[in-house]
Amino acid sequence: MVAETPEVPSFMGVPMKHLSLVTLTFQNSALILIMHYSRIMPMTSQHRYFTSTAVFLNEVIKLAICVWVALRDRRKIDGPTTMMSQSVRQLYTEVFRPDNWKLAIPACLYTLQNTLQYVAVSNLDAATFQVTYQLKILTTALFSVTMLHRGLSLRKWVSLVLLTIGVAIVQLPSPGSSTQSQSSGSTDASHQRRSAPYDGTHSDNSAELQMNRAVGLFAVAIACTISGLAGVYFEKVLKGSSATLWVRNIQLSFYSLFPAFFIGVVFVDGSEIMRRGFFDGYNGVVWTAIAFQAAGGIVVALCVNFADNIAKNFATSISILISCLASVYFFDFEVTINFMIGSGVVLLATWLYSKPESNAANDYIPLEKTEVETVFDNKEAILSEDEASNPAEVFKRQD
């Protein structure tokens, strides 16, 4: 008797594994480039858009996508004879189970992380942001050791040290390059495109409003720390949970709405939004950035289902290279010798860290967001920006 070969999932003849990896590579690259351009492009109105409103709309779109997919899955389980109202009530019960409040903490952390990503891309070029944001691998590993008492192999510790060294090399000024004003954090002549402050409440017409490298690096460092903490906390709370991937993301997106709206939209920018309007400064580029960030979760979900962690990290590495090349072409980014060496070390460290141990069953898969992944004992779900795009759940993006 001949054993049947399992059918390989495909879309229009293309294996879903390959399709999801290509899509993830494109999404990782395009998201940061579009977000960066949305903050430095010539203004279509008197002011730039409020990043707080962009973060809030991102969560609204993600919540709508999660609810739609979860309800569709619920209908498949219930069958066509079941009334829609009954399926909705069943989904409501699954989402608002007694312990759902525990997800409010990572939801708040992820909202802050998304806000800091806008601060970072407003003050750093896309290539530098992509490379530096890989520090989330380091913070996730450290939190997993301290909070989950995980052990890392010697090779992984070496890769983390290499990762830190590579990011540090990227930040060093290149020998012979023009001196940059580190006190003010302003960029050199090739990068003096004006960027709106992260709060979006000031005019871009004054000359001093240039990209502040120090602010950008600080925002990336804090975002990476939050990414690691939120991802590991998310895993610790939900390990062994029976909730589906989409239900968990409904909970996260739902609780993310509150800090995004009340802290960002109302408290931080409330007075200016009342004066200028919620959608002031919005255009096609801004909406594209929001849509790419929201759609990133679906892409990561496809990779979770059809590809493995090593392939996903490979796609992330390729997206870094694409971002560098695109930054040179679109933003006149100057590739220095230090950037090339540092980026190479970062890519090597990422590859070493994701390489499986000889005992694959005990291998630790890093939690990354654009790109944090949560590993459950029952392998029920692995969750992942900013990818970046960002970490413990599928819809939090910016690698």
Automatic annotation (TrEMBL):
<keyword id="KW-0812">Transmembrane</keyword>
<keyword id="KW-0813">Transport</keyword>
<keyword id="KW-0762">Sugar transport</keyword>
<feature type="transmembrane region" description="Helical">
    <location>
        <begin position="157"/>
        <end position="174"/>
    </location>
</feature>
<feature type="transmembrane region" description="Helical">
    <location>
        <begin position="337"/>
        <end position="354"/>
    </location>
</feature>
<keyword id="KW-0472">Membrane</keyword>
<feature type="transmembrane region" description="Helical">
    <location>
        <begin position="246"/>
        <end position="267"/>
    </location>
</feature>
<dbReference type="Pfam" id="PF04142">
    <property type="entry name" value="Nuc_sug_transp"/>
</dbReference>
<feature type="transmembrane region" description="Helical">
    <location>
        <begin position="287"/>
        <end position="307"/>
    </location>
</feature>
<feature type="compositionally biased region" description="Low complexity">
    <location>
        <begin position="174"/>
        <end position="187"/>
    </location>
</feature>
<dbReference type="InterPro" id="IPR037185">
    <property type="entry name" value="EmrE-like"/>
</dbReference>
<feature type="transmembrane region" description="Helical">
    <location>
        <begin position="314"/>
        <end position="331"/>
    </location>
</feature>
<feature type="transmembrane region" description="Helical">
    <location>
        <begin position="214"/>
        <end position="234"/>
    </location>
</feature>
<feature type="transmembrane region" description="Helical">
    <location>
        <begin position="49"/>
        <end position="71"/>
    </location>
</feature>
<dbReference type="InterPro" id="IPR007271">
    <property type="entry name" value="Nuc_sug_transpt"/>
</dbReference>
<feature type="region of interest" description="Disordered">
    <location>
        <begin position="174"/>
        <end position="203"/>
    </location>
</feature>
<keyword id="KW-1133">Transmembrane helix</keyword>
<protein>
    <submittedName>
        <fullName>Nucleotide-sugar transporter</fullName>
    </submittedName>
</protein>
<dbReference type="GO" id="GO:0000139">
    <property type="term" value="C:Golgi membrane"/>
</dbReference>
<dbReference type="GO" id="GO:0015165">
    <property type="term" value="F:pyrimidine nucleotide-sugar transmembrane transporter activity"/>
</dbReference>
